[in-house]
Amino acid sequence: MNTRNLRFRSNRVSDIMALFHEELDTLYGSGETGVFIGMLFEAFLGWDKVRLLTSKEQTVDQSDLLRFHWALEDLKRYRPIQHIIGCTEFCGCRIAVSPDVLIPRPETEEIVNWVVNQFSTLNSQLSILDLCTGSGCIAIALKKALPAADVTAVDISSAALEIARQNAQNNGVDVNFVQTDILNSQFSILNSQFSIIISNPPYVRESERAQMQRNVLDYDPALALFVPDDDPLRFYRAIAAIARQHLAEDGMLVVEINEALADETAALFREHAFSPAIHTDFRGKQRWISATTVNRKQ
Ligand code: GLN
């Protein structure tokens, strides 16, 4: 493309910022547009916030201007900023993302931080199983925070596991990745006992599509999100059955949940002889359940 056709008034940083605000503020609000601008300058030019604030009269070269142009076009189509820059931050880990994996959410980060707090003072050898790992964010962040733990992570999608493996390598951690379908009753994992079984499975009902944002619907993989309305807890039933077999007696099961189904999900775990507790996230939504086996020795 001839860069003279770009709508930026000049190559100046202040003009790039101005066009982003003109075209995106009505879609995202000016605060979020400002966040996008900061993330793009960081990704494209390696500039931190201070550098950006003090460089508004500087110019960028034509090839960088073109990258800002395409980023702006993508954002107008609600392409997630994480897909544009190819990665996101999760619990201090840099996690690459693609359309094959769910973009890690801050709610999930909160759950991982909570788990780390529960277990960080424990000296016994931990083994962790992460079901439906996707990008690998949960498994990788747990291994980073609890380095002595043995971590196994499974997913049905080989494309997701490829990204998860890459993410583990980029973060310098060792995670054992296994491709398997947890809904398949043949599910078996060699190491039979885990101290933590954790999962963020698909839990959004098809009927909830109407309330969802375009950036999620158009770009996150449906495989990682949706469950049928007539059986929305199917993954939790499978997880409960796996945990009955593979959770150590003093272990803990932790699952992210659909806030609209918290009580039903807790009841399901109770039926499988677990003692569940529902936890509320930073947005005030019932977001995860932790459960121990009822025969746990106190
Ligand atoms: N919290 C995610 C969303 O609302 C859903 C994650 C999931 O289904 N596990 O997009």
Give an overview in words:
The protein is of the alpha/beta class. Helices cover 42% and strands 19% of the residues. It has 12 helices and 11 strands. A 7-stranded mixed sheet has the order 5-4-3-6-9-11-10, with helices on both faces. Strand 4 (150-155), helix 8 (158-170) and strand 5 (176-179) form a beta-alpha-beta unit. The chain is elongated and about 70 Å long. The mean pLDDT is 94. The structure holds glutamine.
The proportion of strand residues reads 15-25%
Bound molecule kinds, no repeats = glutamine
Helix content: 40-55%
Rg over alpha carbons: 22 Å
- What's the story with the biggest beta sheet? 7 strands, mixed
Distance between the termini: 68 Å
- SSE pattern, N- to C-terminal: HHHHHEEHEHEHEEEHHEHEHEE
Number of helices: 12
Write down the overall geometry. elongated
Return residue spans where pLDDT drops below 50 for at least 5 consecutive residues. none
Estimate the mean pLDDT confidence.
94
Class computed from helices, strands and strand pairing: alpha/beta
